[in-house]
Design goal:
With 257 residues, the protein is an alpha/beta fold. Helices cover 32% and strands 18% of the residues.
């Protein structure tokens, strides 16, 4: 079994000397779903973004947007493991918000669709958030910027609210001036720029899973023919946890007699 950034396809051929190949041999003791979730790009992104860039510590108040998603749910749990005093998430449905608090262990999870979301953010963290791990962008990020603490660190992981479309958004960020008045920093990142951190990150993530300190969810869809629908689920906010597509079960070679 191998892991890599391949196409949505049943078969492919990759040569070992291909410089574009990132194929890794999957350890026999690692479940394939875990390899694509906590120990894959999802978990690595949450680790680098929260552990290395956000750097929460004791006394910190942390906000994670899209907290019921694969990356956000892990990022918030990492913040708690690192000692954050308050971890707040945002999600759309009552079921997702309940999972974020009851299973992932966040202190609170706010309805980002609520027209009073600005006030909800303010009331959730009096004094503002020291850390914002943003997966959404748009209006929610704008509201978060108006609710940051002095010296806050805002890390941009994604912009799912935009659908990653090329056209300009209808409304840009209006509260960026709080970055100045609160002496805050806002930074984007791409996890593949931090490949040297992957072994240490995977070791920590695996240990936290084994210790029961880190949990995750998978949202499984069946069949390669449903690939487009599966991808769209991310932008429609229909998934809880890691969105996976089950193509087929592997036919592993039998050991010699």
């Amino acid at each position: 079994m191998v892991l890599g950034s391949l196409g949505w396809q049943a078969f492919c051929t990759v040569t070992p000397d291909d410089p574009a190949s990132d194929i890794e041999r999957l350890s026999p003791d690692v479940d394939s779903k875990l390899a694509l979730n906590v120990l894959g790009v999802t978990g690595l992104t949450a680790y680098v973004g929260m552990h290395d860039l956000c750097r929460p510590e004791s006394g910190c108040r942390v906000l994670v947007t899209a907290a019921a998603g694969a990356t956000g749910s892990i990022a918030g749990q990492i913040a708690r493991i690192m000692g954050a005093d308050l971890v707040v998430g945002t999600a759309g449905s009552p079921e997702k918000r309940a999972w974020v608090t009851d299973v992932a262990g966040f202190d609170d999870c706010l309805d980002y669709r609520d027209e009073k979301i600005f006030r909800l953010l303010r009331d959730a963290a009096r004094g503002g958030f020291h850390v914002v791990f943003d997966n959404v962008g748009g209006t929610l990020l704008d509201n978060a910027l108006a609710n940051i603490a002095v010296g806050a660190r805002i890390v941009l992981c994604g912009s799912i609210s935009t659908g990653y479309r090329p056209e300009r958004p209808e409304v840009g960020l209006r509260n960026y001036q709080f970055l100045t008045t609160k002496r805050a920093t806002m930074q984007g990142f791409i996890v593949r720029d931090h490949a040297e951190r992957f072994p240490a990150a995977r070791a920590d993530l695996r240990r936290w899973v084994d210790e029961g300190r880190l949990t995750s969810a998978e949202d499984m869809v069946e069949g390669l023919g449903r690939a487009p629908v599966t991808l769209q689920r991310l932008f429609d906010g229909e998934n809880l946890g890691k969105q996976l597509l089950h193509v087929a079960d592997p036919e592993l070679p039998r050991p010699p007699a």
